[in-house]
Amino acid sequence: MTADLSAPDTDLMVVSIHPRHVATILSGEKTVELRRTRPHVAAGQPIAIYSTSPESALVAVGSVDRVQVSTPSALRTPSLLLDARVSEREYDAYFTGTDRAVAVHLRDVAPLQNRVTLSHLRSRRRYTPPQTWHFFDAAGLRALLGDHAAHDELVAWI
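Predicted structure:
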């Protein structure tokens, strides 16, 4: 079972995102997720979105379109800020103190028909949502989700 910080590009990356950003991702307005460290992902990699508290659930699935890595000043363009749905002030505050900025471009994001709550995840095994991301292969997803209705939805992306 895989549940670590790097994985083959066929594994599902579970990424934690604040609910206000999840809402704009699901509406199609936000297509870029910003990070201070680069996940080991490739174009086409499946991604599941975990909406942090107060929602605390796996809520969507999609894939990585591409990943950009640069300095914060070089990556900071009007179009990137628009696609990430952040203000200049938010962007600058987030990347203060680092010399690396990562933009994970998302595509084909859709809400899960059956959200997976944190209580369900914890009922299956000792699970702590990622501060950044986790990777799961098919066996890892089965161990995490059991017979939850979202299992087949998520495995279809692997």
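Summary: Confidence is low (pLDDT under 50) at residues 1-6.
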